[in-house]
Amino acid sequence: MKIPSSQITPEAIVLNRREFLKLAGVTGAGAWMLAACGGGQTASQATQPAGIPNGNISATSDELGNPVNTFDQITNYNNYYEFSFEKESVAGLARDFVTSPWQIEIGGLVNKPGLYDIETLKRTLQPEERIYRLRCVEAWSMVIPWLGFPLSKLLTLVEPTSTAKYVRFQTLFDTARMPGQKNPGFAWPYTEGLRLDEAMHDLTILATGMYGKDLLPQNGAPIRLVVPWKYGFKSVKSIVKIDLVEEMPTSLWMSAAPNEYGFYANVNPTVDHPRWSQAYERRILASGGVERVPTLLFNGYQDSVASLYEGMDLARDF
Length: 318
Ligand SMILES: Nc1nc2c(c(=O)[nH]1)N[C@H]1C(S)=C(S)[C@@H](COP(=O)(O)O)O[C@H]1N2
Ligand SMILES: [Mo]
Prior knowledge:
There is one protein chain. By secondary structure, the chain is α+β, with helices and mostly antiparallel strands. It has one domain (17-309): Sulfite Oxidase, Chain A, domain 2 (Alpha-Beta Complex). The chain contains 10 helices and 12 strands. It has helices at 17-23, 29-36, 43-46, 71-75, 90-94, 118-125, 151-158, 196-200, 252-256, 302-305; strands at 103-108, 114-117, 128-135, 140-150, 166-171, 191-195, 205-210, 213-214, 224-226, 239-245, 280-284, 290-294. Strands 3, 4, 7, 8, 9, 11 and 12 form a 7-stranded mixed beta sheet that branches. A 5-stranded mixed beta sheet has the order 2-1-10-5-6. It is globular. Residues 1-51 have low confidence and may be disordered. Residues 11, 79, 136-137, 232-233 line the site of molybdenum atom (MO). Residues 11, 78-82, 134, 136, 171, 190, 219-220, 232-233, 235-237 line the site of ligand MTE.
């Protein structure tokens, strides 16, 4: 199946070189070198001082030693189709999106369905810092100091029944507040899903903050999913509905282009996107510049999550 060009997605668009270099803080002759060698770091960029993160965090790198991106980078380069297809335009267009009060409706195959208030959930479930790499299917990546709580804690509260096999998540549907949803080319609201064991894994969090502060709208305020071993599009934003279900949910991307976006979406350097390799990624560096680095299986979280997929053919179940 081919997607009409009118529906070309940010996942499908090769990163715009000009905006990418601008984001990375690279200008002038170095920019051309960088582009020509596919995003490799030049010597002059390597000697630049490390970017100073702005915000309240306890560590400045992930467990592999990758420095966290700056608050400005993380809040000004976003995928959020409800506001814009342009990563650099989302922040401005989402600025006045009101995210308080906010409730999540939890239902389906659970013993305790209901409307859960976000502030109550935060008080009860105590968000903590988690520094995770975010790897997008378009092959750029950042390192982000989230504030969140394990999804498993929320699921334990609502008590899934024995027939529940998957979790389905949905973003707010409100075409007045989210003008991008007027685009008939997508199956709004934005929907994502996890298998129940993936959802119960301790690495899987619902993030309510970043850099020690509440999330900004462009990052999915007031609550969004973060699954660090999966491509970024799994991280459904501004969630209003969570359902426990028996059948595998169909995500917005699966319905838009089933040959390009599977349910699992595990980061995998050996399983290419139909239109480009996934073997390398362009790490946007806090210090400015871009580093081309090999992509790691399960985004480097394989020790923790590989057992979830034992016996599965990851090329077929992509
Ligand atoms: N509702 C909604 N959630 C979404 C998206 C979107 O367009 N709408 N984009 C996804 C994609 S493709 C990515 S890479 C991440 C980006 O999250 P960030 O802007 O916090 O980096 O959000 C994901 N969640
Ligand atoms: Mo993405």
